[in-house]
Amino acid sequence: MESIDNYNFSGKRALIRVDFNVPLDTDLNVTDNTRIKAAIPTIKKVLSHGGSVVLMSHLGRPKNGPETKFSLSNIVDEVSDLVGINVKFATDCIGNDIQKMVQNLQAGEILLLENLRFHREEKKGDDNFAKQLSELGDVYINDAFGTAHRAHASTTVIAQFFPNDKMFGYLIEKEIASVSKIMANSKKPVTAIIGGAKISSKIIIIENLLDKVDNIIIGGGMAYTFAKAQGGSVGNSLIEEDFIETAAIILKKAQTKGVQILIPTDSVAADNFSNEAKTLTCSTNNIPDGYMGLDIGEKAIAENVACILNSKTILWNGPMGVFEMSKFQKGTEEIARAVATATSNGAFSLVGGGDSVAAINKFNLANEVSHVSTGGGAMLEYLEGKELPGIQAIQG
Ligand code: AMP
């Protein structure tokens, strides 16, 4: 396997798969540039050794082709500022015009391609699409830890077109080292904090974590599917009906395995999804009709904090509430502070996933946890001991 430190980039065009899936506000400004910053060492290495760089990434979840709000043109200025040179932009990621732009790229220059997911073939892992992408570089570098668990065209399938000239970037190298450390040596009690909105994408991981952890703190929108599974009334809170039964099975399995699952005792509920909403704090199992739980309440905060402070290893993925709105940020903020305090008391803490990273940055605590991972799902799957296709494709 080639390594970025030993490879000779002089006169070569490096096609780098980065994870620039950054959060944008309603004016399409980048609100958290952690993922862009994290890719800079790899980009600079290629440039400083006489190469040019073609960057490819996805942004958000476009459904049917191009959409302005998911265009990577929204982040070109931010990338240029962070690398310190003017980054060129290609309005697509494949095709003759793009080939020409790439051929005209000089050593020391960077071209950012348009969102890969504007083509359905990206997520399908289409061979032909991957081949077309591969023609844009002499050497392929995967530095997108956040998508390493996906067998997509640009993260996995493409690697076969670079039998020799393929390698990891610095970010993936660092991520693998940090996550491996926690796997090899996790001191008990181990606590996983899982929040965010999408229970569908995290429930399998929660189930698999039952064999690895002592406590699971559930927060965010997914808490209400668990509350419903326990027979609670959750008003208008976010619910994924299809997963109520799985949630009930997980609760039972946890009991058998002696894993403590903390579902928030109380919630801050709102009469609509806005910072101006009328709010009340109530039992999570008894949210009035017309109200939706948007943050964990004071009792839940106290219980979660006690559990975190008692832990020696902490994994955190997903916010406890709608922390982007000041009225519903307290749960996430208090949990972030507890993770920082536990870390200063000697615990090892790993925080991963776009929104948890945005949260930890919002509260200026990124330097007070052991490792901030740029990958959410990828981090959790790697921790479960799964082989990530993006990593396997490079390692061979
Ligand atoms: P995910 O991408 O699944 O990690 O979800 C992150 C998003 O979940 C954030 O943008 C939060 O605003 C949102 N979120 C957290 N708690 C809730 C909740 N109780 N109801 C709805 N959305 C929530």
List the helices and strands and how they pair.
Elements: E1 13-17, H1 34-48, E2 52-56, H2 76-83, E3 88-90, H3 96-103, E4 110-113, H4 120-124, H5 127-134, E5 139-142, E6 166-168, H6 170-184, E7 190-194, H7 199-209, E8 215-218, H8 223-229, E9 233-234, H9 244-257, E10 260-262, E11 266-270, E12 279-283, E13 286-287, E14 292-296, H10 298-309, E15 313-317, H11 330-344, E16 348-352, H12 354-362, E17 371-373, H13 377-383, H14 389-395
Helix pairs in contact: 1-2, 8-9, 10-11
The protein binds adenosine monophosphate (AMP).
Residues 196-198, 220-221, 238, 293-294, 318-319, 321-322, 324, 353, 355 line the site of adenosine monophosphate.
Provide structural commentary.
The chain is an alpha/beta fold and 396 residues long. The protein has two domains: 13-168, Phosphoglycerate kinase, N-terminal domain (Rossmann fold, 3-Layer(aba) Sandwich); 175-383, Phosphoglycerate kinase, N-terminal domain (Rossmann fold). Helices cover 36% and strands 17% of the residues. It has helices at residues 34-48, 76-83, 96-103, 120-124, 127-134, 170-184, 199-209, 223-229, 244-257, 298-309, 330-344, 354-362, 377-383, 389-395, and strands spanning 13-17, 52-56, 88-90, 110-113, 139-142, 166-168, 190-194, 215-218, 233-234, 260-262, 266-270, 279-283, 286-287, 292-296, 313-317, 348-352, 371-373. The radius of gyration is 22 Å and the shape is globular. Bound molecules: adenosine monophosphate. Adenosine monophosphate (AMP) binds next to strand 14. Adenosine monophosphate binds next to strand 14.
